[in-house]
Amino acid sequence: MKLQNKRALITGGDQGIGRGIAIRFAEEGADVVISYRSHQDNADETVKEIQALGRKAVAIQGDVSVTSALPKFFADAVAAIGPIDILVNNAGVEKRAEFLQATAEDYDLVLAVNLKGPFFLSQLFARELVSSKRGGKIINISSVHEELPFPNFASYCAAKGGLKMLCRDLAIELAPYGITVNNIAPGAIKTPINANLLDDPAKLNPLLEHIPLGRMGSPEDVAGCAAFLASSDADYVTGATLLVDGGLLFNYHEQ
Ligand code: BGC
Predict the structure, then answer these.
(1) Tell me: the pLDDT tens digits for 71-123?
(2) What is the pTM of this model?
(3) Which of 52, 111, 138, 164 lies in the 20 to 30 Å Cα band around 91?
(4) 144 lines ligand 1 (CB under 6 A)
(5) Residue 128 to residues 122, 136, 227, 254: CA-CA distances in angstroms?
(6) What integer is the mean pLDDT of 224-250?
(7) Active-site positions?
(8) Interval 126-136 mean pLDDT
(9) pLDDT of residue 255
C-alpha cells in the first residue's frame, strides 16, 4: 500500500474523478475527507464505500469558489481526520459558450472553481504544512486543456492554462518546505462533467477517433496516477503535468 496512514483532502470527491481518487487512496491505506458542493447522496455513498475498506472517511459540504469560506472549510477537514498530508484540487466545472456569447457570470464561476479555489486552498494547506514543519503533496486535476485549445470553452481553457502555471510556480516556491506540486491532465474521461457528450454518439464517435488508445478513460485510470503522485514514489517529481489522456493531446497525423 502506497499511502498507509496518510490523510488526504479531495475536493469534489463525491463523483467522477474525485470519487475514483478518494476510493483508490483509501485502498492504498489513506484516510480521506471529500468535499461536495450539492450532491450529498453521492458523497454519502462514497464515504460508505471507503469505510467498507476499513479507512476513515468524512464528507464535508463546501464550495471552493467561495474563497472567504475556505479557511473554515480547511479547518473542518483537519478537525474531521487530523493533519492533512495530501491535497487534491479536483473540483471542476466547465461552461460551454461561443466566445462571442460568453457571459461574465459563467467566466467568474469557471475561474473561481477551477483556479481561484485551488490557489487559496493550496495556500491554506501550505501555510499549515510550513508552520508545522511537515512536507506534503498538492495534486491539481487539470486537463489536456491546460495545453490544448477547446473551442467554445475559452473560460475553461483560461482556467486550466492558469492552473498549469500555478503548478509550476508553486513547485518552485514550496520546494524548500518539502511540498511537491503536480498536475494531472486527464483527457476524455467518463464522468458527469461530460454527460452530454457521452449520451450523444454524434459527438462521442468523432472524439473517440482522436484518442489513439481508442476509448474514453475511466476515473480509475486517473486515480492510479494520483496515487503515484501522492506517494513517496513521486518524492522527486514536482512541477510536472502527467497526461492521462490515451494519447489524445499529441495525436497528429496526415492522411
Ligand atoms: C473536459 C471534457 C472534454 C475532455 C477532452 C476535459 O477536460 O472536461 O469536457 O471532453 O477534456 O476534450
Answers:
(1) 999 999 999 999 999 999 999 999 999 999 999 999 999 999 999 999 999 99
(2) 0.98
(3) 52
(4) yes
(5) 10, 10, 22, 51
(6) 98
(7) 156
(8) 98
(9) 79
Distance (angstroms) between ligand 1 centre and the Cα of 143 equals 7
Taking alpha carbons only, the member of 246, 188, 232, 225 closest to residue 85 is 232
CATH of 7-191+218-243, one of 2.60.40.1670, 3.30.565.10, 3.30.390.30, 3.40.50.720: 3.40.50.720
Per-residue pLDDT at 193 = 87
Residue nearest (by alpha carbon) to ligand 1 atom 5: 188
SS3 241: strand
The preferred substitution site among 141, 142, 143 for testing ligand 1, maximizing ligand atoms within 8 Å of CB, is 143
Residue 217 to residue 187: CA distance in whole angstroms: 7
Which amino acid makes up residue 135? G
Atom of ligand 1 nearest to the CA of 245: 5
